[in-house]
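Appendix B, record 7
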Amino acid sequence: MQSCRANLKTLKGIFIDCGWRDQYRLHYGARILSKRLAEARIPHRYEEFDDTHSSVDYRMDVSLPFLYRGLEALSVL
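Structure tokens (predicted):
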């Protein structure tokens, strides 16, 4: 388990978001994952929003810039 934590800490970004009205109840697992990452002091970003699991393309306005910054940090200029 310790090696998993070490590997997770090397990532340039972990982004988790979920609608709190998710019809598949994925928000419960996402909450647990975020809590465990926080307990392990693994940096991540967790957001719940007022929506379901469907038609949430508008959330890309939040997630893609975050992911881009992580990829940008990897690039060698």
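Remarks on this record: The chain has three helices and two strands. The beta strands are 15-19, 45-49.
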